[in-house]
Amino acid sequence: MLFTTKSLGLLVALPLSLAYPTTESLTRRFVGGQCGLHVTQFQKNENGVGGSYQYDIRIFDAIQDTIGGVNRLEIPDVQTRSVDSQLPYTVEITSGLLDADPITFRWDGNE
Fold first, then answer.
1. Number of H helices and number of E strands within the chain?
2. What's the rounded Cα separation, in Å, for the pair 14 and 26?
3. Which of 71, 79, 73 is closest to 95 using CA atoms?
4. What residues have CB less than 8 Å from 79, skipping those under 6 apart?
5. Rg (CA), the chain
6. Which long-range contacts (CB under 8 A, 24 or more apart) does 65-69 make?
7. Which segment of 4-8, 28-32, 48-52, 107-111 scores lowest on mean pLDDT?
8. What is the C-alpha separation between 87 and 98, in angstroms, rounded?
């Protein structure tokens, strides 16, 4: 069904759905598509962390709205921590042992 209206001499067509909302559409609070991840890594022995790395992490949806994240997440050497968001899965981050080691990210079991 299309609803049309005239506003300031312009014709606007708005599609209206007669379908009932699904449970997922009522609980989902993010825009689907390509999500983003912003990570700040603090070196060992900074911010009072001691011998572990520390991370600030932000998760964004397709329109760059923040949908999850954490501040000052301490991850011991070669261990994994999960970061919650409004996405259906958590983002898992594995810290390296040395500064030259990569940080590994997993979501839904995929690196």
1. 1, 8
2. 21
3. 79
4. 94, 95
5. 21
6. 65/30, 65/31, 67/29, 67/30, 67/35
7. 4-8
8. 30
* Ramachandran sector of residue 109 (left: φ over 0; alpha: ψ -120 to 50; beta: rest): left
- 68 DSSP assignment: E
pLDDT digits (tens, 9 = 90+) for 31-79: 888 888 999 998 888 767 788 999 999 999 889 999 999 999 999 999 9
**Per-residue burial over 70-103, b = 16 or more CB atoms within 10 Å of its CB, e = otherwise:** beebbbeeeeebebebebeebbbbbbeeeeeeee
Measured in residues, the chain has a length of: 111
